[in-house]
Fold this protein.
Amino acid sequence: MSSALKYRRLLPDEEPPWSLLLSADASRSAVEEYLWRGDCFLAYHGGRLAGQFVLLETRAKVFEIMNIAVAKKSQGKGIGTKLVAKAKREAKKRGGRILEVGTGNCSFRQLAFYQRAGFRISGVDTDFFLGRYKKTYRTNGVKLQDMVRLSMRLS
């Protein structure tokens, strides 16, 4: 990627980037529940929205990336890695000691991505996704059922 990303926070009176948010979490009601409790960071590359993440302090000194997505045209350019790095910096700046993220049990590509970024598997919320969505999702031939939790210490 030739130029740096430019970041800004989503303002309370702005329309959220629903297509990106819902590409990472298909439940609009779930996104609406956490979106305004945390901070949504928008990342621009060449003046175009390239990605976003929502960062939320879930417990004292523990932050979670609640939602993270890269625009289709911007994928494969290292933007996801830069979004995670920005989330780490923001969490540290706010006194965070741990950064967490969760993804579906069948999201193999995302699980590999997060581990390459320094996250370690820290737990599984069994049956987290059952009944959450109106339809059953399958990825890589595997039914979406469990939330795999990953975390990293911030130093």
Observations:
- The chain is about 25% helix and 35% strand.
